[in-house]
## 1
Amino acid sequence: MAEHTVKAFDDEIGRLRGLIAEMGGLAEVAIADAITALIEDDSELAQKVVDNDPKLDKLEAEVDRLAVRVIALRAPMANDLRDVIAALKISGIVERIGDYAKNIAKRVNEVESRTKIKPVTLVPAMAEIAKSMVHDILNAYAARDAGMAVEVIERDEKLDNLYNTLFRNLVSHMMENPATISSAAQLLFVGRNLERIGDHATNVAEMVYFAATGEYHSEGDRKEKGEADN
Amino acid sequence: MAEHTVKAFDDEIGRLRGLIAEMGGLAEVAIADAITALIEDDSELAQKVVDNDPKLDKLEAEVDRLAVRVIALRAPMANDLRDVIAALKISGIVERIGDYAKNIAKRVNEVESRTKIKPVTLVPAMAEIAKSMVHDILNAYAARDAGMAVEVIERDEKLDNLYNTLFRNLVSHMMENPATISSAAQLLFVGRNLERIGDHATNVAEMVYFAATGEYHSEGDRKEKGEADN
């Protein structure tokens, strides 16, 4: 590419990264607000989370449009093209993370008697980890930081363990308090949504790791790839 | 594009569509097998669903690779480029539909006493609708059939209603039979997974509708778009 084209391309990639960072910020706020609304029984805050979700959809559409334009006008090759495709994929994942937060917010009014359901205290702890995973993996993406990506992947295990504890404790609680089953079932879904946010952050982390090192992160994947190469 | 390039491009788009059709077929089988395994308590079949999932991941990676090559070599413009981007996005969605089927299969061993949980009979009915949505929307995608896309979008309401019924019935069942709460909670997740499959099929349907007509399907979206156009 000619020098001015390279400059334009770099500007546009920078803009794509900026839009994704903006999406990440909105997703983090959505997770935090949804959990606050859930814990404090704040319908207004829950509604705000639902109302804000289209912003993420619009930013994703903006990433799509810009990515398509970059591809069409600059015809990037190899690594540069992969960069643009990664932006397309990551924006889709962050948009879905926002959907999970919205799903949590939608449940706020379905949870009654939350103060009577003890395991609810595990939910903010899970949300904190999920939020930190989203935050750190988007920083790692911006900085192409493979080490941070590995850290995010490892943190997912902690989130999974908390989710399993939440599941067990909620089931015990339901058995002892049949009257709260419906509310407790909603909390199961909330836990599941947070666990899925962690999975999505891990997917991004694997992309970031691959982009930064050219290798697959997990042992299993690496073996599979080795076999495929033979 | 020169004539031979157009021919090559058409061949490659055809190949992308073929790969996505293949993914759709695998996803449908995964849904059907996961539900059969769940209902008939067939751990072996459940394991088969889990073991087959990497095939979908590999096909998605193949779509990615081919799409990137098409963009890099043919530098498609406007509609053609949008076609390739749509293939990238739809392959990602079908891969996730496979994940939901895998999640259902993974729960098979966690559900005890399924014959004692009456609402379980709603699950195959939900699966039938979810499977038909995946099937029909991929046909609609191949044929750019906006009418079929609308039909799939409308079918999602039926699936949502069934899910709400399942939820209510399972909660009642849990209250009356505390000993089955853990199994019934797993069925809640199964129902939720099927409902999410419907959501994903609806997302594809909206893309197909937009690609075929140049307009957004839902009333709300159309209004939003109208405002943005002013």
Note: The longest helix of chain A spans residues 3-40.
## 2
Amino acid sequence: MSARIPPRSGIAVRLARGDILTVIDPEGGQVSDMLAIADGDPGEILSNGRTFDYEETLRLTTGARLWSNRSRVMLTIMEDTAPQHDFLLTPCSQGTFRHFYPDKPMHHGCFGNLADALAPYGLEADAIPTAFNIFMNVTIAPDGRIAVLPPGTKPGDFVRFRAEMDLVVGLTACSAYASNGGSFKPIDYEIAATTTAY
Amino acid sequence: MSARIPPRSGIAVRLARGDILTVIDPEGGQVSDMLAIADGDPGEILSNGRTFDYEETLRLTTGARLWSNRSRVMLTIMEDTAPQHDFLLTPCSQGTFRHFYPDKPMHHGCFGNLADALAPYGLEADAIPTAFNIFMNVTIAPDGRIAVLPPGTKPGDFVRFRAEMDLVVGLTACSAYASNGGSFKPIDYEIAATTTAY
């Protein structure tokens, strides 16, 4: 199946172990925040800290695994044409908008979109951690200072994941101004069942 | 008050808004994982992602604020003599020990120590996020690769926090081999009530 996530919105999908999820930036320059929980057990959730620890890098691309808070692999990155992703920053929320965009209209952000999309699967908003921010361009200076720049993705850039356990995955089309250069765009995704053993 | 946390153990303390918490490395070269939850409301918890976002740096020292998942300031760093801290990696757990030290005796790690210390205040183990790893020395290479090195602290180095809300704080004396150069040492802490307005 394939579908489009409209600008500034979010969805949730169930993946069986072995399913392949491809997240595509159809126009270029857009970000998609991704969360994952164990299907049927929202206490097990994607963890940036465990992932950084076990993968021993902040730069997660083809071959990297995304780990849960219980030290299990949730997703493997199978293919990746994007210049970068981010796993440092939490999804933008009403608090983020108040902090960074006090003069802009309020929006519940990727945080609110993920909370709404995953609530039916038992995830509480307080339990939403740092998402894997697909295509997000966060730079780290030698002194540790970070900056959020527009993504360097071209139209059609994508990242492909394999589900390593049964999951519910939340995905957004980003709502924050800085993350996507101020232009809100859609995100496309495709899901295919694995037919070969691995 | 002041107290010593024995090697490879953890404690929890309640802080009123305005209280000053000083965490001291008495021998040098030791790490203390710190978590904080809102007193009476464990759904509000320390967040590395919110902190990185609002402080716009990975290098948190004097003047930096540590933020909650609900975008409120929990603690401010008032004074800091240590060369570095880390806010990227999750507390070591049984999973961490299996992954990195399969030939070493199993230990429930800072994760287990924080879980035990904070359980009486309503925090569930699954909800434990990345802790603020006081004195921990994590380097980031230009290609994003990270490495855990022994802390550069000298005996008596300390970091002093002010509680910006009523908190329960968990603190450990680290249990992982890499974090402290393989020598398990105690951690000291002091708590003083603020007597001046601010």
Note: The interface with chain B takes residues 43-45, 47-50, 52-54, 56-59, 69-71, 88-90, 93-96, 98-99, 124, 126-130, 140, 143-147 of chain A (CB under 8 Å).
